[in-house]
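Sample entry follows:

_____
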Amino acid sequence: METKGSPRSYSPHKNGCLMDRNSEQTESFLPVKVEPGLDSLNKNPEDFTCMPEEDNTPPDRFRLVFFIMVIHGVGILMPWNMLINAKTYFEEYKLGKNETEVVELKGKFMFYLGIFSQVPNFVMSGINTFCQCGGQASPRRIIISISVMICVFIATVVLAMVDSSDWSVEFFWITMMTAVILNMATGVYQNSTFGLAAILPMKYTNAIVLGTNLSGVFIAVVNIISIISAPDPRTQAIYYFVSAIAVLLIAFDAYFLLPLTKFYQHFRAAIRRQQNTSGPSRTFSETCSLFGQVLKKIWVQALCVWFVFFVTLTIFPGIWSNVSKKDFPIEDKYWVAVFCFLSFNVFAFLGNIVSEWVKVPGPRFIWIPVLLRGLLIPFFLFCRFEVENKERTFPILIDNDYIYIVGGIVLAFTSGYYSSLTMMYGPKLVEPEVAGIAGMIMAFCLVMGITTGVNFSLAVASMATK
């Protein structure tokens, strides 16, 4: 059988898909390229062919691909978790001078950090989703992103060793600029990785989400160990940043391991077989039409993942980390470390794990509990939320430490659980060949939720204090 514009012969595959025998034989001897970008999914939705039968799928031996995705999840949120867990280092050590301008910056450090981190993340995630630069650029995105993150963390370690007491304001803005660079790289890394996982079964998307919360648990534990063992905040911070470099180096190596696994090769080859039967490249208008068709099918899940992270980041870490204890039997220096950062990350991680076995509600009704989570915002504002050198404008209605702790557990667990469900549901509501597009759109909405959440957090804090 001869196709137009090609001298090669094709024969029907047993599952009904057309495959190029010559190219398949050749491909088996070539290295596998990792292409998480949208340019690797160049096909109209109405032209879909069937995917290979599930019976032919090789096993994920030792769950290696699953753990690679977990490692990438850890690496994705490593910069954010490192910066927010170093709260004491930044606020008490580097910004400890009793000067009016420094005190003002210190009081809003976490809010500024959120904005300078997540807005660049959002912008780069959008660019990576909607602006593609050719198929050969795709394999380099994750590698370049991780490399940039490692270099910035090395610079951050150097800054920790330098005495900046005479230029605290300048140090503040240098820190904000490093946050911008780190999170620009994170935006590309995160978005590309979700696109990479979307062609696999949905639990591999959840593996990334699980890894992001495991990252938080890891850093929160390092934080507590540092408080106990390190003599000063500077040494604690150096421990954080060196740990981040080590984790990112592991993620760097894991990237090259993925295309060597037969499990990943199987799903990558299925997409390539469908590409062999596709027509010419889409025009810009056709690409926009494809995005519209995908979004039409997943818009509920996209809105849900946005709202999950909007609520979570409105509260955590800006508001949550500024809730003081009343009479809970724990030293002040451990209060935020244990009942903010560790508590959030542990229970969000547990929420991710539970979603592996329990998937309630389904895609149709998940918006109901997601919307109800919005009630957690006023809950935390009515706790003992305080900003240094500011007075509350809201009354304290929840003055019990135990009720506050339970509320924090609910916020964290539902954040992990519903973020996992929505991120898994989205790509599986579309045809397999555009699952990568759906995954990247979902990741874009995730980052948009984080960005709008941290900005709204500053607005809420301003309303609650004067």
In short: DSSP finds 16 helices and four strands in the chain. The chain has a mean pLDDT of 83. The first helix runs from residue 21 to 27. The domain at 62-264+284-464 is CATH 1.20.1250.20 (Growth Hormone; Chain: A;).
